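B., you asked whether I could sanity-check this one before it goes into the benchmark set. Here's the sequence:
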Amino acid sequence: QDFSKHAPISLVPRLNQVWDAVPSQLAKENRKFIYGQVAKGSRAKDFETAIMWLKDCGLIHPVHRVSKPNLPLKAYEELSAFKLYLNDLGILCAMADLPVRTIFEGNRIFTEFKGALTEQYVLQQLIADMGIYPFYYSANNSRGEIDLLIQKDDRIIPIEVKAEENLQAKSLKAFIDKFSLKGARISMSDYREQDNLTNFPLYSFMRQL
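And here's what the prediction gave me:
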C-alpha cells in the first residue's frame, strides 16, 4: 500500500483513510458507507475524490443503493448511498488481520464479519465471472435491506447472501412478494426451489444463477 507512488501527494492521506476504513465499515450490521466514521465530522466532499480514484484503479467496488427495483436498475441508482467492498477477498482478510484458522474452524465472535466476507466473495464473483455490477436496496426506515440486486437481461434478481446454512430469509421473501420478483439466496445449503425463491450453493452459484 504505497499510494504516494501513483496518486497526487495531496490526495494520499485521504486515500489511506478510505482504504483503511473499508474493513470496519463492512463489519457494521448496516454496511452503508458512513463518511463520519472515516474521520469525525467529515462529509462526502472530503472523500469523494479519493473514492473515485480507488474505484478507477480497480481497488474498490462501490455498490450503490437503488430507490426502486425497476428496469433498468441504473436509472434508479442513488449515488449518495453505497457500500464499499475491496477488489479481493484475500486482501480484505489481510487488512482485517483475520487468522486463517478462524475462517476454517469458525468462532462465535466471528459471526458478523463472516457475513461481510461472504458478501465480498459473492460480489467479486459476480463481477469477475459474470460481468455483473450489482446494486443493493434498503427501505427508508433501514429495515428489509436486500444485500444485492442485479439485472440479468430483462430480469431483476434480489439476492440474499448467507454465510451459513441458515435458510431464513424474511426480508427477501417480503421483498419478492411486494414487487412480484423471483429471488435468490446464496448460502452453504444445497440447491433447492422454494416458491419464488431459489437457494444456490455458495460454491457454484455463478453457473446456476
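One thing to flag: The chain has a mean pLDDT of 91. Otherwise nothing jumped out at me.
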